[in-house]
Structure formats: structure tokens, C-alpha cells
UniProtKB/TrEMBL annotation:
It comes from Pongo abelii. GO terms for cellular component: membrane. This is PLXDC1 isoform 18. The keyword Transmembrane helix applies. It is found in: Membrane. Belongs to the plexin family. The keyword Transmembrane helix applies.
Length: 98
């Protein structure tokens, strides 16, 4: 986005081949197909992470059982923080979760 004279802006469209964004409203059938009720999920697949469940401002690296596509790169490890954040890169400092 460029700032032009008189505080006007010009929006530049940048199309990428590594993702497609779609929004579904609550009345659309596809939104019901994609919804996962975590409370009703298969309990045999649920793993409770003891460190993240009982602490504040902590993060832990988790190995995934599947490839997670992130901007065209398949990831097998992510970092989950107690504040509800998911990090895809390396943890570079201790206050990452603050």
C-alpha cells in the first residue's frame, strides 16, 4: 500500500499461489461442515499438555502428526503458548509469550 498526496492510498493487490482465503458466514452450509466442536471431539485423540495446562506465560514446542502448510512450507513442529498464540518459527527469546 502506497501513500499518495493528500493522504490518499493506493491498494496493490498481491496474489500468491501458496494460499487461498475464503470466508463462510453462519448461514452457509460449508461453515457447518468445517466446524469442529472441541468439547465433543474424539477424546482418544485429545492430549493434555501438563506444562501448558498448569502455567502462565509459557510456550512449548509440539511435534505434529501431519504436515501443516504455512505459506507454502510444510511444517511438522509448532510452538504453542498459553496466551493462545501459535508460533511457526524459532523461539528467539524467553519473553516470547508475554
Amino acid at each position: 500500500m502506497d501513500t499518495l498526496p493528500d493522504n490518499r492510498t493506493r491498494v496493490m493487490e498481491d496474489n500468491h499461489s501458496y494460499y487461498v482465503s475464503r470466508l463462510y458466514g453462519p448461514s452457509e452450509p460449508r461453515s457447518r461442515e468445517l466446524w469442529v466442536d472441541v468439547a465433543e471431539a474424539n477424546r482418544s485423540q485429545v492430549k493434555i499438555h501438563t506444562i501448558l495446562s498448569n502455567t502462565h506465560r509459557q510456550a512449548s514446542r509440539v511435534v505434529l502428526s501431519f504436515d501443516f502448510p504455512f505459506y507454502g512450507h510444510p511444517l511438522r513442529q509448532i510452538t504453542i503458548a498459553t496466551g493462545g498464540f501459535i508460533f511457526m518459527g524459532d523461539v528467539i527469546h524467553r519473553m516470547l509469550t508475554a
